[in-house]
Fold this protein.
Amino acid sequence: MAQQRPLSPHLMIYKPQLTSIMSITHRATGTALALGSLMVVWWIVALATGAEYYNFVQSILTSWFGQLVLFGFTVAVFYHLSNGIRHLFWDFGYNLTIEGVHRSGYMVLASTVILTVLTWALVILG
């Protein structure tokens, strides 16, 4: 009789790691970017449609909820960009040690925060 082995660790046993959380987040931000692109297209179509519809779309995007969505879109852009650059370094064979993976992971998180804050500071103050 063949020995029955588990196919993979159960989710209740598996301990989330920085790399797994960042991988899931990378996929989620990719999805958010696809949906956010539809929002950008909606804004461009409103711009081409006329002043009345453009003002309607602009009122939605400048509401507190619209600003929250735009902020989230900004975070997704900078996280996905930073993590994509991290993957390019991995493709060239850099930072493939455990220490390098963790260091570059924290660099991705830091660059996401810094770039998002700088962008929104320019939007608000500019």
